[in-house]
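Record pair follows.
FIRST:
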Amino acid sequence: MGRGKLRIYLGAAPGVGKTYAMLSEAHRRVERGTDCVVAFVEHHDRPRTGVMLHGLEHVPRRQLEYRGGVFPEMDLDAVLARRPQVALVDELAHTNVPGSRNAKRWQDVEELLAAGIDVISTVNIQHLESLGDVVESITGVRQQETVPDEVVRRADQVELVDMSPEALRRRMAHGNIYQPDKVDAALSNYFRPGNLTALRELALLWVADRVDAYLTQYRSEHRVSRIWGSRERIVVGLTGGPEGRTLIRRGARLAEKGAGGEVLAVYIARSDGLTSASPKELAVQRTLVEDLGGTFHHVVGDDIPAALLAFARGVNATQIVLGSSRRKTWQYVFGPGVGATVARESGPDLDVHIVTHDEVAKGRGLPVARGARLGRSRRVWGWVVGVAGPPVLTALLSTVDLGLANDMLLFLALTVTAALLGGLLPALASAAGGSLLLNYFYTPPLHRWTIADPKNIVAIVIFVAVGVAVASVVDLAARRTHQAARLRAESEILSFLAGNVLRGETGLEDLLERVRETFGMESAALLERASDVEPWTCAGRVGRGRPVERPDEADVDVPVGDHMALALTGRVLPAEDRRVLAAFAAQAAVVLDRRRLQEEADRARALAEGNRIRTALLAAVSHDLRTPLAGIKAAVSSLRSEDVEWSEEDRAELLAGIEEGADRLDHLVGNLLDMSRLQTGTVTPLIREVDLDEVVPMALGGVPEGSVDLDVPETLPMVGVDPGLLERAMANLVENAVKYSPSGAPVLVAASALADRVEVRVVDRGPGVPDAAKDRIFEPFQRYGDAPRGAGVGLGLAVARGFAEAMDGTLDAEDTPGGGLTMVLTLRAAGTRPEPLHPAEPERQAS
């Protein structure tokens, strides 16, 4: 008996149709004569899903008691005893009720598969265990029920059930997913368009990765070496030379021509590590390819064409981009080159592009760093042994006769010693001096500069060659050691610089101080000018050295673009240090640009804030002040009228109306004055922690009794707001909602918590507002009488949004499921707001 097969329908969110698709597949299999049963399917009272359950055999569920309640669960033993060919098991990530055989439903499914029963199941992308943190950051909800990714990856088939966020929200609004009393909360919380789009992207990417893994596994199992052009994969071969940037950009353009194109830049390094590639240039090219959406790969191989082709076929690439050879004409005598070899051996399924560039035929070698790489004491001792050693050894050998062969071996050992100590030059001195002494004192004819026996000539030549070879190896090893140490230091510095960027430590002065400390300079300054004829100005400076007004006055200057330079004083840096210094200079320019952009954004935000508050003030003056003024004027005119004799009760009622209108005017004028202070920056909203159930009811005084249903739980977290501004914003929202709600349909004011936010929703059942007009209804405009619905929903919304944003909140409009408009006021929970910039500044409450 073999293991059963698992098929999973994967969805981005509840309601996309996973269960419906699973039941449709079950009906198709039953029609083909397959023994298929419903082990556990939850239809959630969805009519269409319930209809699909008809005609399928159901295994009775097991009823489990837990904490005084009875819960249905899948009866695993009954399904195993029934032994169908296919079992339908919904909600793979479900947690079983305590008392079940297994803690998780996916463990029940594993037992069914082990028993040889095929299983069809469903799961949402947010229930995958590895995506828990990502889903929580998107939706603000932590998924308690999860399934290990490996369980889903081991499935024989994974089918994506996809639906656009707009279509899913329409299904939700029509009541096809949740009950009507839950629709509003679901649409405003988990089923927001942004949440659904992000979850959909996660599901599509996860399935795409699995398809790619399937293809790779199939090619490996069937030993497929030919390229399958399922999508364009362009491999860009890099040498570490400056032409790499041109090749990467060309590869990116080729990838853009095909849907789903992918760029893979690869650098082939020899296994001995003795390459002439520039680490700095490779780092720049790595950054470039990643910025263009590709990936960088580092492969080790002594046969570069073979390694490149093996890599390309391993990733199922369709094209290879190489640069024209940098070798000079005479160097082709050593072979056809990498490009020609790759093109010849690529075969018919792999296209090779040879791209010309500015470095063609300029030579492959890179500059070799000069200067001594050995310690001073070693070089001194090397010269001592190389210069004084041969005469001393000659004096010692004059006392004994060891034969010419032994004499030459001793001189050779002396030359090797000089090479090990001092490198190439002391070894050459030792070899030259030793060969002359050997010729004069020990090679017949003695004491003459001639050699009679040709064999002795060969011996002396070998002696000199061995000495030079050993010295060259020692010198090369010393250079590589120095280069490795230097590259390690450079990598540590660049890693620190990258860490600063990732941690957000982007202060210009801090960066300049780091440059000064790293290179041991007296001062560091970033200079700039607007044009070539303008004088230089200092954008930032640290250190105690002499002030530098122009780059040419500094000991070291690194240009950044055409009109910016990093200037340092203290000492002259070697050329090797300038490579890292250039990275610091580029980062300094980025920091300066970022700081200026932030300053411009702050100024633009201040201007926008001023414009927003001014429009709110105009809207309030034209709308909110008119009603009480009209009431006061009418009451005063009535009292002054001589045509009517008013009773004491009527006079008292008119006076009370005047007093009420005056109080309302005083209340509004106080708010408007505080708004004007907000505009000028002389006062900030008095933000404090308050309970919504204390403020929201106070905003309902201006609407008829019974026209509003209030649902503000006492368990909500406190919010950081200005109570006066919040009260006024809520009053405007409620008044507008009541005005446009039909008779007998009270407005619902409900509040709920979501992550670090608290939402207040004002729901009416009026005719609603088209999507195209939802932004315009917050614009301030003049309303004449009872304007039709298409002309707006009241000027008070402009005031409400201005007050909400002043408290670092938001106000948006959404459709009410079933018809109407819902205003969503989002506030930050207490403790999540930043501290005020000037806490000691006197403030007054804007109420």
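SECOND:
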Amino acid sequence: MELTRRQTLGLAAATVAGSTVAATTSADATPDRWVRDMMRRMTLEQKVGQLFVCYAYGPTAGTADARNTSLYGVATPAEVVAKFNLGGIIYFTWTDSTKDPQQIARLSNGLQEASIAATGIPLQIGTDQEHGSVVRVGPPATQFPGGMALGATRSAAYARSAGAIAGRELKAIGITTDFAPDADVNVNPLNPVIGVRSISSDPTLVAELVAAQVKGYQRDGRVVSTAKHFPGHGDTATDSHTGIPVIGHTREEWTRIDLPPFQAAIRAGIQSIMTAHIVVPALDPSGDPATLSGPILTGILREQLEFDGVVITDSLGMQGVRDKYGDAEIPLRAIEAGVDQLLMPVDPGLAYNSVLDAVRSGRISEARIDESVRRILTLKHETGLVDHPYVDLARVAKIVGTPANYAEAQRIADHSTTLLRDDAALLPLSPAPRTILVTGYSPANLATALQSRGATAVVKDTGTTPTDAKIADAVATVADLTVVLTNKAWDTEVTDKQAKQQKLVNALLATGRPVIVVPVRDPYDVAYFDPAPTTLVTYSSTAPSMEALAKVLYGEIAPTGKLPVEIPTKADPTQAMYPFGHGLTFDAQQTRLTVASYNIHAGAGEDNVFDLDRTAAALKALDADVIGLQEVDVHWDARSQWLDTLAELATKLGLHSAFAPIYDFDPPAAGQPRRQYGVGLLSRFPLIRTENHSITRLSTQDPNPVPAPAPGFLEAELDVRGRRLHVYCTHLDYRADPSVRQLQVADTLKILAQDRKKDLQVLVGDFNAEASAPELAGLWTRLTDAWTAAGSTTGGPYTYPAVAATKRIDFVTVGTSLKVLRAEVPAEVPVAEAASDHRPMIADLAFRP
């Protein structure tokens, strides 16, 4: 239940009756009057308390926690607020503050009650909900992909809508301030602390999208937005959590690079700005970090930029602000520099009493404290916090994580995925079922998205520091495709000190199997691996980003993201591996199919010995969705074994199979099966229907054959994204008799004519003729020859063009609804590894669903 203004003030009156806060103060008064009345009645202790924003441990206001007792001397979050008259609280996951929306909302109401009871002033409750890599409130709250992903979309509209939704959801659970957006310009690819939190390395793009985010948070979402980290943390090579970064920008460089986003934020009405614990000698030669710098905070931010909102420090527990001064001195110098709010001092009691003592001794005037308190109280009144400090628990589920909000987050993620390279022409994947190894950093979300599309996902989560055992396990995993995700793999100083992510990726690439490399955080990772033929960047590992990645992989959407930063080479940072703005795309309306034809013959290689494992390995290497096989002997061995070889191959490869015999090798024998020879089909798609059609042939078992109908023209019907695909596989006349081929073409056309016009047709097989042979002309009227359409295909001794003009062995032909994207004969393999003395032909096809 949301308490009314009258109930709020009545509670304050009952609690602080006879103290400094008047029960008759009306929150309906003008901001100036309300602030004036409150300040006139506040004690110095209450004023100083308003300057502090601290954390407290516990999921409810009344939860006793020994960590609070150790840090504050009192047990519960409510007691912490009351003891120090806090102006604000910040929520973290590790403080047990953000379990779920209902818990957060109840905690917020409980803390507001404690604050109003103590001082009559509501709390400013904040958190770092930048989205992407910095998130405090997880699902079911809507998860957006973060700053650099927004930069990849180039869309101010998306930036504003993300801010609006985030703001509304935070406000619904009682969080009144978001310490976002990040306004830093990440011009240093080795920046260990900003990276993808930044929108871009381009100041203009950062400025445009930061201004849009501010409007989304504040005007639409009705929460306080905090631009950070002033005067600009984008060119640091040191993490200010652990050291003090020094920015070497000249004044001119700072004005050109770092300043524009903060100027844009101020013009957009930003209500709060967070300082950076960085030293910028060009702005202040004293060596003091910006948080403690009067020339930067007062001289530039207040006077030059005319910002009169609330200035808050970054955490005072960070080493970047503690290197030069003690914890009692830091808050004093921050206030003297122009800071209004002190965030998370290491020793809250020490810091609080240090400020009180400084005012009592005259070092800091009470007027200076009043200046900051006035800004803080004005902000609380102007944002409606004074009139409405409590949230309505019944409305939380109606606002947080709604389907509409999720849809918008997905729409933004869909436009951020960036395709850097696809030299292997893997994308888009066909919709056929396949086994995909998903490994690297946090692969679960992507695996879920791939499984929903019919893939069998094998998940190997190796984290940011894979062990050698996990690397070996991933490399040994058998799959049709591997997708490896990386997170700051470039960072061998902190994240991955032994470069194990780099080792994992390189080991997977070295297998020669199809591998897709995806940095799910910093795009700079790609410069630290061996060249990966297929590479994308998502800038985020959130569920929407992984769903967007799956959509791109399967061609459901085209990749439209453009790099918001330049990716330099590892060897020479002055050289661009990928320039700013790079991003490939493809026609998302095309559904891709890979079809192969392979005459596996009665022998294998030149040793003339069939080897099931060798054949399976050769077929797997084709990575095709559909494979037509000729000269298939389904037994291949002595009569006593009677192995169904095609079924065995299908089982090894995880494919569906069909077989159409042409004739039996063996004469009839009572109680004995007959050894069969014919054509076969292996398919990733389930087979809806199969049929063995008859076609004119010359019998190989007749010493004086005459043309006659005979079986061996296999048809398999598949469903591909709602379209019926008819795949025909045949072993045509190997005797190179033109008259027989003419009859076979006529038979083929009759069979094809039985299909519906809107159905897709593919014919695979082999025959001994050139594509230009006149008896084949009717076939090409109906179908397109993949070699001819591809134009650049090279053959070999057992493929067309061959040594003998009539030695055309394997072909893939397609109907008018299909387009040939590429056709080739894979590279030769050593004879000992060859599955056949023929070579396969493989074609990438596409159709529009």
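COMMENT: The first helix runs from residue 5 to 16.
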